[in-house]
Structures are given as C-alpha cells and as structure tokens.
Amino acid sequence: MTIPFDLSLYLVTDEQLAGPRGVVEAVGRAIEGGVTLVQLRDPKGKGRAQVEIAAALLQILRPRGIPLIINDRVDVALAVGADGVHVGQSDIPAAMVRRMIGPDKILGLSVSYASELTAPDLSVVDYIGVGPIYATATKTNAAPPIGFDGLAALAAASPVPVVAIGGVKAEHVVPALAAGAAGLAIVSAIIAADDPAAAAADFSTRIARFRAT
Amino acid sequence: MTIPFDLSLYLVTDEQLAGPRGVVEAVGRAIEGGVTLVQLRDPKGKGRAQVEIAAALLQILRPRGIPLIINDRVDVALAVGADGVHVGQSDIPAAMVRRMIGPDKILGLSVSYASELTAPDLSVVDYIGVGPIYATATKTNAAPPIGFDGLAALAAASPVPVVAIGGVKAEHVVPALAAGAAGLAIVSAIIAADDPAAAAADFSTRIARFRAT
C-alpha cells in the first residue's frame, strides 16, 4: 500500500529562490496556505546539507500529514526516512529506485515526451511530473515547453496521475486541471513569494473553485 | 565480516582526466598494472550515468576480485551492488551510510584534520583517506595540503588503516608508506597516463620494493 498522497498543490523547493529566509522557513510558511505535498529539490546541495534540510522539513510536515519527497537522491530519502523519491530521465532508473525504497514509498518520474511513457517505468511509479508547461529559469537543461496541449496529450496517455510543472502560476490552475492534471507543481510562484502562505492559499482557492464547478 | 580489501594501490577515477578513451577503458588498462581497489568518483555525473559506469566497472573488476567503491552516492552503490562507499566530510554522515549499506560493505571517509577523527565516524568506517598530501587540481574546495608530516600524524592517531591521497606520484610511494599509510590513492598519475598499465605497474613495483626492505 502506497503512502497516501494528494498531488493538488505540490511544492518543489529551491534553495536560491527561497532567499535568505531559507527553504525550511519558506516551506513552513507555504504549508499554512494549503500545500498538499513537498519535494526537496537541491541539485547543487551536498549530501549532508540535504539530509539536514530534509530532517528539518520532516519535523514540520509530519505533524500535518504532508508527505516529503526527495528529488534524485535516493540515499538522502533512505537516510531520513522520507515518504518518497522523484527522479528525472537522467537519474537512477525508476525500477532500481523502486527496489531500493520498497513498495510503499511514493515514486514520481519527470516526463516531457510521450516516448518517455515506457512500461518498465510506468509499472513502478505512482505519478508523473509532466512539463515544462512553460520555459523556466528554475531548471537548467529542461526540455522545450510543451504547453497545455502537450500536458493534455500526456495526461490522456498516462495510466498514473499527472502533476503539471514548469513556470506554472496561479492563473494556470484552470487550464492545467482542465487538461487532466491531478495537480500543479509549483516552485518560484510560492517559494519566492513575499508571502508564501498567501501565494499557496491563492492556488488552493482556485483549485477548490475549479473542482466545485 | 567486511569484504576483504587492500588499500595498497587505490585508483580513483576522473571522467575528465580519463579523456576520450573514457573511465571504463582507462580502469581496464590500469588494473593490468596491479591496482588493488577502485573508487568511482564522478561528482558532476548524473545518477543514471554513474549507474551505467559502475555496472561496466563491476564487469571488469569482479572477475579479478578487485572491489569497487562508489564516492558519495550511496544510492548508486546500492543500485549496482558495489562493494562499498567512500564519503567526505560534507556527504551523508558515515553512521547513516553504514546503516544503509549494512555491516559487510567497505566504508571509507576522507579526513584532513585530526579534529575529524571522531568516535561516531571511526566506529563505522573501515579506512580513512588522508590528504591532500599535495595541492591538486582534481578536487576543487579541497583542504590545504598536509604533507607527509600531516599524514604521519593522522596515521598514528587513526585506529583504522589510512590511504594517502592528493597529488601523489610514483616518487611518493616511499615517504607515504614510511609515514604509516597502508597504501596510496591515485587519480591523475594513473588515469591520465598515456599508458595506465605501465603507470600502475610502476607504483606496484615501488610498493613491493618498499615492503621487501
């Protein structure tokens, strides 16, 4: 049984964008606004620093039942007992990650092209992150933007839930959910906001409003 | 029971220094010259690339009984079933790594200062890598060079075997072993050599000659 998770408002961290307040404080404020899932993404961070940040995030997320997912570093996830791992196409293959983390942890995979929806990966992942919807400065070497049409095509083809990522802002809640996404993965629009709680609440409200109609 | 290992001639890989022939071919040639241990070190390499190189290295090392150790990425080591892990002071703490890899795998730790010889680390590691002996271009952000006097002081204080690393060349075999090192960790002097087998054989011969006297 996989740990229960809700992709609706999926916050992805960024050390640089969090600014001087740091990732842990930015996340602490964002979860007041209704974040449903958090991914620690720190591609330049060393292992020890990632372990320390992940442990601090678990302390604030566990009491609220918000799962913590670690980007790329399966070892960091195992070291702190995080709730899951998210890998990209150039990270350790999903099947190997699944063997390391066991059947219950959450496993996500980044997908930009239909050709990346392959059987070995899809049989072991719990969701896919689809994008980039728009070009973004957060991720270097990202694939070209796929827009909401690309999102809709991948969401229709995917047997697992899809979260939209890449330059997504509050005004994109309706087109993303209408395209079939189960949620939105947000980096800068929340983590770099002056008021991360208000920014997250804006997304939450729009998501709830879309689902009520 | 820890996997048996011999620190005498410990080859550390470097993607850049291996040049166009690549790390796997360079290692394949070096082991003809008597390398006793290999560490895959690829701090800029993504997880999938590291898994592929590690798997290819295991194919050539296993038949010869030469252990393969992975630098930093415990997850890469677990994914391919490598023989051990080597971590630095800013990587995942040694005690956490030991819990992940279990009691039998080889665990090494980089140490530059006596203050880094701490009980929690030393109770779980099988050897320490001491250096840099000389300044080196291979590792950015390295500590200042400690020389053979620094090596001797740390070797005397360490309860586990010590391998000397950092700018070590064939002419340093005698002073390194005389300072109490169990072996030498070599990057450029072998991996960047025109003839890695001959370069490794030169080290091996000098090590054997020192021990015979």
Structural description of this entry:
The structure is a homodimer of 213-residue chains. By secondary structure, chain A is of the alpha/beta class. Chain A has one domain (9-206): TIM Barrel, CATH 3.20.20. Chain A has 10 helices and 8 strands. An 8-stranded parallel barrel of chain A has the order 1-2-3-4-5-6-7-8, surrounded by 5 helices. Chain A is globular and about 40 Å long. In chain A, 50% of the residues are buried. The interface between A and B is medium-sized, with 22 and 22 residues.
Percent in helix of chain A: 25-40%
Shape, per Cα inertia axes of chain A? globular
Number of helices of chain A: 10
CATH superfamily of chain A: Aldolase class I
Oligomer: homodimer
Largest interface: A-B, 22 and 22 residues
The biggest sheet of chain A, with number of strands, parallel, antiparallel or mixed sense and barrel status, is:
8 strands, parallel, barrel
Give the DSSP E fraction of chain A (strand runs of 2 or more residues): 15-25%
Count of extended strands of chain A: 8
Distance between the termini of chain A: 32 Å
Unreliable runs of chain A, pLDDT <50, ≥5 residues?
none
Order of helical and strand elements of chain A: EHHEHEHEHEHEHEHEHH
**CATH topology descriptor of chain A:** TIM Barrel
